[in-house]
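hey so u asked for the seq, here:
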Amino acid sequence: EVQVVESGGGLVQAGGSLRLSCAASGFTFDDYNIGWFRQAPGKLREGASCITTNDGNTYYPDSVKGRFTCSRDDVKNTVYLQMIALEPEDTAVYYCAAGKRITYWSGNYYFEDDGYWGQGTQVTVSS
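ran it, structure tokens below
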């Protein structure tokens, strides 16, 4: 059974930090690129906040560069998203996803394939 489970969300004040974790099982983890995506209240899901590839690359959109860092541990089948200098605009449900094909469009990265998705973890940044 495939499982993708996010954790680490919560309420934080503007300027604060959070680290999200994504634990995956049930598929060959190091065959996949892993990304973090977010969906703010009342908005569509955005392109990836970061994608870490199975060949050692990491991609970020300009909106989070310098504030978000994602990393993966292929031994633990876990990906982390470290977020600093959080802003109220970062408030969203953050989803972890595994995909094989990455596409880039208009400054954002997406997965072309459906892959595997978690249920999300809520991040709320208060002003």
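DSSP finds no helices and 13 strands in the chain. The first strand starts at residue 3 and ends at 7.
lmk if thats what u needed
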